[in-house]
## 1
Amino acid sequence: MAPYEPEQNTNEAEAPRAGRRKAARYAVPVAVAGVAAATIGLVPALATSGDPKLPDVTAQELIEKIAASDTEQLSGTVKISTDLGLPSLGGGMTGGFAPGGGGGEDGEGSSADPQSKLMELATGTHTLRVAADGPDKQKLSVLDDAAEYSLIHNGDDVWAYDSKSNEVYHSKSAGKAGESGKDSGKTDLPKDVPSTPKELAEEALKAVDDTTSVKVDGTAQVAGRDAYRLVIKPKQAGSTVGQITVSVDSKTGTPLKFTLSPAGGGSAVVDAGFTKVDFAKPSASTFDFTPPKGAKVTEADDAKAEQQKHGFKGDAKEFKGEEDLNGLNVIGKGWNSIAELELPGGQGLPTAESGDVPADAQRLLDSLGDKVSGKFGEGTVFKTRLINALITDDGKVYAGAVTKDALVKAANAAN
């Protein structure tokens, strides 16, 4: 991929034509820029010089090309790296998410259950093999050094296989759009773990006002394909997001690479891109799956019944977003949006002084956070390279993709 070029000949305009807003209705989600939605003002900009040489396009035209992309058949290899700057806890926090890393709630269930398995993509570096043939056939495999985890959707069936534990998880896929029936709209697949550049780009390009500059900034080659670089950058100060760069295939409009760079510099927070890609129709056998001999097979309905038997009611109510968070209030807008809510019981984190937390656990909490004070009282800011959260001693939480100072300022203003 060609190195980043300094901004030149971009000629940002502040008033996009109303008739070209169809592809601009996007919103930056929780997974990319914090709890509150950020917004993007889509402005025309000519591509700068780069390698390879491609015809000039505007940012609006490139986003419309992404939205109009009808790529349904492809196969390839994706490398995804995530670095939130969290400390290593010796596998205690992530062991259950790694291939072969453990079962469901309280040790029950299947280690192949995709609901938790794909959360491993939220940390570290992973190599994925992906394939798709329309809306009813997809396959994603997470490759480990000596094991593989595969998730296969083929028609009505969804199979997940963990080769390390030799366990299989089977469920029925969601009904097709507009299909009636008791199972329509239900699925056992995780909804909020984008795993390809296209999914990440779609999440990052969802809505619209003047808090962001968007421009085409040069070209690149990704997985042997000519691509434009679309750069999305906050105009507001105080965000932890530096910029988002999406490399878009010049022929198909398919995002080939997604990079989220932090405002503080250093390595990308999220970097996902194809290292190989082929837009030909995959072989039908790619999506075939038969449980290997001797594998433990868990049916989704049986797993849920077992969890409920042990008192886990996680599927009793589907989480629908902000409306399910009692007392949620969004402060500010755009990239500086901060979510404010209250912890149950109206009190802050338990402490060693109160006898609710072991001393070692208290030291760990202290190492992860910074003590702060202000008009709101006292509290602790827990930081990552992207999302920060202030928890006050009286049980209020302020969280967003913003700096520590922005959180303290928001807490002071709310009191």
## 2
Amino acid sequence: MAAQRKTSRYIVPVAVAGIAAATIGLVPALAASGDPDLPEITAQQLIEKIAASDTQTLSGTFKISTDLGLPAFDGLLGGIAQGMGDGASGEGPGSADPSAQLTKLVSGTHTLRIAADGPERQKLTLLDGKEEYSLVHNGDEVWAYDSRSNEVFHEKGAGEGGPAPEKELPASPKELADEVLKAAGDTTSITVDGTAKVAGRDAYRLVIAPKQKGSTVDSITIAVDAANGTPLKFTLASTSGGKPVVDAGFTKVDFGKPAASEFDFTVPKGAKVTEGDDVEASRKDAEKDLEKELGGLGGLGGLDGFGEGDVNVIGEGWTAIARVDSGAPAPKTEEAPQEFQGFLDSLGDKVSGKFGSGTVFKTKIVNALMTDDGKVYVGAVTPEALVDAANAAK
């Protein structure tokens, strides 16, 4: 089970990309040749259709674009990589390590080929010009290959098994739909907003939106396959406007069973192979070194030590704010390692109020206020809402 949990951190759930892509999005204008004429359906019926979907096999091409409103990560990640050790030199986890490669999906536009054959076999290939990065889960093994560096990552122990989940799930799609709508309550609007054509398939558009003011989320739109209930695309839009925060979905999809050979992996000639256990040990050493470098950041460096009792939730629904008391002064960006300084400065705005003074770190969705006396307020809410929460806490 330990190995299973460890491996699950690395595998991008390929099936989930088509089944429950709850953070990746759909552009409203999807149809190239007119929206399909489909029978009318209620939001509850559409949620029931999603819940009843039992898609186990699929293959296709998936495109994802992410715009968090952040500066480019390349320079920052490059500096961190140097500090943590360069895989090519043998001092770090290596360029084939999934935890390093898949951070690329946090920004920019990427094309992926994906395939799935149940919970035991998935494959994802990230295309980058002539270079490719492949991640394969086949039974109890995970393989990853970076063609640019000719490096391989390998880990065993990803097999199925272990105890069943303790939480009981609703017994039927209707019960699940009822639970979803009940949980939405007065804070959320769930509607069906027309139809769309996605990857050549007819789909309904399910739109989820906050009713509360102060949230940074404008709406979430999911394109649901009209025939089998599989989500095909999904848009997360911010109240700040512009491009969707995340816009992803299939451009081609086939629900047939992929060939078994699709999930075979042979180590390329001359490739360097790194085992998962070695990567884990190397990562822990690198994290210790990075913590030492971040020592001057005070409260920021201490966030990992919080227990559950240190976090208080203010409000509910879409405007909930987590309040954390670090017990240490806020970090000073000028004391951060050089590769972090410009990045932190570009994110932060100085603010003040009854609470005192602090800095708001912003993205298009999640914002955080760090006060000078070590309090942290985080939520998918506007900076003004964070300042109001800090003032009210005084």
